[in-house]
Amino acid sequence: MRPATDALIVIDVQNDFCPGGALAVAEGDAIIPRINSLMDDFATVVLTQDWHPANHASFAANHAGAAPFSMTEMPYGPQVLWPTHCVIGSSGAAFHPALRTDPAQLVIRKGFRPAIDSYSAFFENDHSTPTGLDGYLRARGVTSVTFVGLATDYCVAYSALDAAKLGFAATVLSGACRAIDLNGSLAEATAKLHAAGVTLGN
Ligand code: VGL
Ligand code: ZN
Questions:
Q1: Residue of 18, 154, 185 to test ligand 1 pocket, by largest number of atoms within 8 Å of CB
Q2: Where does the record place the Isochorismatase-like domain (predicted)?
Q3: What is the atom index within ligand 1 of the atom nearest the CA of 58?
Q4: Could you give the CA distance from residue 25 to residue 16 in angstroms, rounded to a whole number?
């Protein structure tokens, strides 16, 4: 068992990010047994859930003529236009059935505002609208956070970068994550994680 100051944050292990899902990450489901057993080592376990309304601005389908995986400009900066995924209440938005959810004390839902995407578990993509996770962890005395889940180069990386910025000791266990790797996004995310002092483990 890790010290009570350590939390495990499980990012977006949802059907739509697993094989057969709307935004499937290769081998996304392969990490689940490892994540399930890691949960036994942590007194604090948080799950995140990507949770978008059908009219969400990150969906290519909501931009006339836009192809999935193309880029657009949002008021807060560049944004990938994704295939429609993790629509609120859909089976694609549900946690993968093999993922243990009982050990989690908190589920953070993110990306529910139509006009703004939210990769990070801490802040939406404007880097200023909070999800509340920072306050929750601090109130529980957490100082160190370990990230696992999907996808390494988007929601996991953004979460770990924000954690480091907020002063938490942050670790990403790459072996318990899988990446989308769109146009070099995995190499870019890895470089940013190193530069931010995030520990990369296996
Ligand atoms: C994610 C793209 C869009 C993720 C979520 O969980 O990494 N990626 N929404
Ligand atoms: Zn999303």
A1: 154
A2: 7-190
A3: 3
A4: 9
